[in-house]
Structures are given as structure tokens and as C-alpha cells.
Amino acid sequence: MTEASLTRTEQKERTRRAILDASLALSAESTLAALSLRAVAKEVGVVPTAFYRHFGSVDEVGLALVDESFASLRALLRELRTGAPGYADLIDSSIQVLVEHVTTHRELFRFLVRERVAGPPRVRAAIGHEIALTTRELATDLARLPGTEGFATDDLRLLADLIVSFVGTTAERLVSEPEAAKRIAAGARVQLRMLMVGAVNWRSR
């Protein structure tokens, strides 16, 4: 690869990143569905045709943001579960990762909370798909933990769905109440431990 082509590649990536960041910032004022392609291009400082070199539509920008939001968080949580520590350590570590991730990527999570309800259909569907995928991965990992030997497959999925829903609610609270992050995290740890105490004593029929 020549120096010139490398420079073009880097410039293309910078422009793509700028489009994502501008779309995230502008959509925070309303919703992604109300976002104008021209407004994004103006914010980035490029002509509208330059937008299409990176994304086919504003919806595609939303899909990229959804993928970006979930990819790193799922990878971090998956890595934690692979270590298979005790339940208490697993819960504490998971909540800590969630708090740090939401704090670091607050606007992305604000985007998810908003667009899950008000976003374009393709973006809402993508968020739903990512949540379902996260739930399936968690159900698979739960089956490896001690105390779940008596769980039927459907019950493992229900437990995973319950945990993911709870984590989602906790993330929403962290986004809307950043000043209360410590209190929210402390309460979430206790609630998850209570949930797991009941879960490990469950026996499927």
C-alpha cells in the first residue's frame, strides 16, 4: 500500500467516524428518524454526496451505531463469564463493567434507550436482535455455571431474559441519573444476588 493510498484510507475512516459522531450528537436533539442527511453533512463539513460514500441512508448510520454500542459490551461481559468465577464475583464484575461502559459511552447508550422506542423500524429491529443475541449467549453460559444443572433449556432462556432485561433497565437509569451511579450500582448488585439466590434453588419440572 502506497503512502498516498494509506492517507486516503485514513481520511475515509476519519470522515466515517465524523458522520457517526455528528449523527449521534444531532439525533440527541430529537430522534434519528427526524435527522436530515443534509444536516449531518453540514455538521461534518462535507457535501451530501460524500455522505453516500460511507452510508446509503441515515438508517444505515443508526445500524452502525447500534453495532458499535453492543459489540464491545457483549465482548467484555462474555470475557467475564468465560472465567466462571463465583456468582457474587461475577455479578460484581458485570455491574462494574456496565457502569464503566455506560459512563464512557453515555451518548451511545442514550441513543439506544431513545431509538429502541422511537427509532426507524430497521434500527429498532437491530436493537431487538442484539438484545436477543445477548440473551442467547447468556443462556448458553448460564448452563455451565454450578446450580443450573436442573434447569430446562426454556428456563435457562427465561432466566437469561430476566437478567438482560434487568441490566437494560439498570443501564437506562445510569444514563438518566449519572449523579446516582454509585447508588444505582449498589442496588443492582443486591437485586441480582437476590435473583440468583432464587434461581440456583429453582428446579425445572
Keywords for this entry:
mainly alpha; 78% helix; 0% strand
Helical percentage: over 70%
Fraction of residues in β-strands? under 5%
Q: Supply Rg.
A: 20 Å
Shape: elongated
Topology:
Elements lengths: L2 H25 L9 H8 L3 H4 L6 H25 L4 H18 L1 H13 L2 H22 L10 H24 L4 H20 L5
Please explain how this structure is put together.
- The protein contains 9 helices and no strands.
- It has helices at residues 3-27, 37-44, 48-51, 58-82, 87-104, 106-118, 121-142, 153-176, 181-200.
- It is elongated.
- The protein is mostly helical.
- The N and C termini lie far apart (62 Å).
How would you briefly describe this protein structure?
This protein is an all-alpha fold and 205 residues long. It has helices at residues 3-27, 37-44, 48-51, 58-82, 87-104, 106-118, 121-142, 153-176, 181-200. The chain is built from nine helices and no strands.
